[in-house]
Design brief:
Order of helices and strands: HEEEHHEEEEEEHHEEHHEEEHEHEE
Helix content: 25-40%
Shape: elongated
Strand order of the largest sheet: 2-1-4-5-6-7-8-9
Number of strands: 17
Structural class: alpha+beta
Length: 374
């Protein structure tokens, strides 16, 4: 069995009309870095990925886009009814083959999904359209291929219809099975996302012990180290090696120490019993350690919504890292990208990040760079 193929993964993002992007389609490799100057649209790509992920997890549209007007393409004119919006989409590869999801979102005067298309092998499996602007629903039609070739029903205009199909489709006909397989593949891929942005200023002090799941800001790094050093010996050893490669001075250990008040702090072991609290490290070193920890753990350690009904062998985690190289020097960036590329080759983790400059990434086997300044 091809395990990589069995794991649904987003392999293309489409920003058909979103902020500064028009007609843009970006293929995604297991490790993809979007590079370019400030204002080139790097963060917009990750915003679209995260938005699709949240919609796939069942979040309402208003929770996902808190500033929908800011997503409207530049210089976009309103139609005769004063409506403006944006269009985004993705392709998900997996056991059901390539499946395309495309959304048309109205941002003005009211936020709503006005059109959704789910397509596989050129076959339209789901389509929605706004028929009555006075109602908070869209008219949906999905492929059935039974006695009735198409099933029609209203769906809410503030939810991703694809994520609702498993609750609406019985799976009794060949067509229904095909629709379910495509919808579930998209939802599984989109749900398996961890968006992180390590915050060094919040990682310096001791933290209380809790459930030991790393938060997106990585402010509880010490707590997670306390867990991994006892539960994940092999991965923790790899983390120490990464710290040795990316931190200044000798590094013989990286561990969390329990303090008298019940909190823990992270320290680097320097040898001869000397230690350096990580709170004394520079911002680049702290971001480097946090991102290395993200890459070397997984859904069981990261604070994310897991698709518990899907076997782990069929899941692949995608890490979204805006500012992947922020505060890092050239050596740290190369070490971190090399670590990411090595992990991504195993197929269970994918990485999409942004970098201010990534011309050097060609030196790292497996790293794909999309230069938005070109």
């Amino acid at each position: 069995m091809d395990v990589t193929h069995a794991r649904p993964a987003v392999t293309e993002l489409r920003l058909s009309a979103f902020k500064s992007h028009r007609g843009a389609a970006f293929p995604l490799a297991p490790l993809t870095l979007f590079a370019g100057a400030s204002g080139s649209g790097k963060s917009s790509v990750l915003q679209v990925y995260e938005a699709l992920a949240r919609l796939g997890a069942g979040d309402e549209l208003g929770e996902v886009f808190d500033d929908p007007a800011g997503c409207i393409p530049e210089r976009a004119a309103a139609d005769a009814q004063g409506r403006r919006g944006f269009r985004i989409g993705c392709t998900v590869d997996g056991p059901a083959g390539p499946v395309q999801l495309d959304l048309a979102v109205q941002a003005d005067p009211e936020l709503r999904i006005v059109g959704e298309r789910l397509t596989a092998d050129g076959k339209l499996l789901l389509s929605t359209a706004l028929r009555d602007p006075e109602r908070s629903t869209v008219q949906a039609a999905w492929h059935t291929a039974g006695a009735v070739p198409v099933t029609r029903a209203p769906l809410p205009d503030d939810r991703l219809g694809t994520s609702l199909l498993p609750l609406r489709v019985a799976g009794k006909t060949e067509g229904q099975v095909r629709v379910l397989a495509a919808a579930e593949q998209v939802v599984v891929a989109l749900r398996s996302v961890f968006s992180c942005d390590p915050q060094p200023q919040r990682m310096r002090g001791p933290v209380a012990l809790g459930e030991g799941r790393l938060r997106p800001g990585c402010d509880n790094l010490a707590e997670v180290l306390y867990r991994t050093q006892s539960e994940c010996a092999i991965r923790h050893k790899q983390l120490v090696a990464a710290a040795r490669a990316g931190c200044a001075g000798p590094v013989e250990a990286l561990r969390a120490e329990e303090l008298l008040n019940g909190t823990v702090r992270a320290v680097l072991g320097r040898g001869d019993r000397a230690v350096t609290p990580v709170g004394l490290l520079g911002e680049g070193e702290l971001r480097y350690l946090a991102l290395a920890l993200v890459l070397l753990t997984g859904p069981g350690v990261l604070a994310m919504d897991q698709a518990g009904e899907v076997p782990p062998a069929m899941q692949s985690l995608t890490v979204l890292a805006d500012g992947f190289d922020r505060s890092l020097d050239a050596r740290q960036t190369r070490e971190l990208v090399s670590l990411a590329a090595a992990i991504c080759r195993h197929g269970h983790i994918r990485v999409v990040g942004t970098a201010a400059e990534a011309s050097w990434a060609g030196e790292v086997a497996g790293a794909a760079v999309v230069d938005l300044s070109a």
